[in-house]
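Section 5: illustrative case.
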């Protein structure tokens, strides 16, 4: 009993059976694996019940040291950390490997999206993919592109400020989204005149004026944080396009536009050295991300301007979408200026909590 009262060190944790364990024992005492493997090599196959128990044990033991006790990490959250560096390394070998890698990663993401959203909607895979992409692109730029001595100090500072602005918006909008997690009791509902309330099946919480759930940010986007979401998209697209241009003009032969703007011209020699190849691949990946982000950004600007949420837009018939939704019923539309004022100057409203009996 006294042992259980002592605080956990960073490498200790309580397992699924509430027993105190240490990270050093993670590979030991797995009865399900031992018996399942014995059945397999004797020709009986791996029993289905042992397979489920083994996966549950694996999920429980997959942990990292953390203050207050080792934290469990999901297998799905580990995949981007493994896959993205491998894809970048393979793609840096040649042009055909670049085309193959990016085509494969596109198909893989579409497949993972279809599978995980159905069987594990609360997955951290997509959020981990976002963070891993940021880390890899920044590491490549700082430790591979910068040593090429083609980037000015002020250019590096400007890019770092764009990234910092994006991270600040991301952190703030996630904090605002998490504030609604306190409304999780099914016996209570929120009420406020003129406010649309939606239950998010992924967040398992009630979200006022919900626009959509962003899997890449792992939070709900509503009127409360929509302007921060739009700002984060803007800063992300700006940082990606700026870094890709700086990288391409460093590894490719550049030319001057209007005597001032440097743009890449001939990139035929980028695969002659691994450093040039990995820089080129990171720039292409940045451009692809920037294009997707700009499409989402324009969609958000358009929907805010006409007073519709993305959830409402998706429910519109095709005929209304062809007319840009202007002929559809928009009960919450307040006009262009008021629609933007409502999300820019958002303030914490007071909601009434009504108990359901």
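Designed sequence:
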């Amino acid at each position: 009993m006294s042992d259980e009262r002592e605080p956990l060190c960073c490498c200790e944790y309580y397992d699924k059976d509430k027993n105190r364990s240490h990270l050093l024992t993670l590979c030991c005492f797995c009865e399900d694996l031992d018996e399942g493997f014995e059945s397999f090599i004797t020709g009986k196959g791996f029993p289905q019940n042992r397979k489920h128990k083994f996966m549950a044990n694996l999920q429980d033991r997959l942990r990292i040291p953390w203050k207050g006790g080792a934290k469990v990490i999901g297998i799905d959250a580990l995949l981007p950390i493994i896959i993205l560096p491998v894809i970048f390394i393979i793609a840096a070998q040649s042009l055909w490997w670049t085309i193959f890698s990016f085509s494969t990663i596109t198909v893989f993401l579409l497949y993972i999206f279809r599978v995980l959203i159905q069987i594990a909607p609360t997955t951290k895979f997509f959020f981990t993919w976002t963070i891993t992409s940021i880390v890899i692109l920044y590491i490549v730029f700082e430790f591979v592109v910068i040593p090429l001595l083609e980037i000015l100090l002020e250019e590096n500072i400007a890019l770092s400020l764009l990234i910092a602005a994006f991270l600040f918006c991301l952190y703030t909008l996630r904090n605002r989204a998490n504030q609604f997690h306190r409304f999780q009791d099914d016996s209570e509902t929120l009420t406020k005149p003129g406010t649309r309330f939606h239950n998010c099946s992924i967040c398992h919480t009630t979200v006022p004026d919900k626009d959509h759930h962003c899997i890449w940010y792992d939070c709900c986007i509503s009127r409360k944080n929509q302007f921060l979401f739009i700002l984060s998209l803007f800063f992300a697209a700006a940082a990606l396009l700026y870094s890709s241009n700086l990288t391409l003009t460093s590894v490719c032969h550049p030319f001057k536009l209007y005597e001032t703007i440097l743009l890449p011209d001939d990139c035929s020699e980028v695969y002659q050295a691994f450093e040039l190849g990995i820089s080129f691949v990171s720039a292409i990946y940045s451009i692809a991300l920037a294009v997707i982000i700009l499409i989402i950004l324009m969609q958000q600007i358009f929907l805010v301007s006409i007073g519709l949420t993305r959830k409402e837009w998706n429910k519109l018939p095709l005929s209304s979408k062809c007319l840009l939704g202007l002929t559809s019923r928009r009960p919450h539309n307040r006009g262009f200026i008021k629609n933007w004022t409502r999300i820019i100057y958002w303030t914490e409203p007071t909601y009434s909590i009504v108990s359901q009996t």
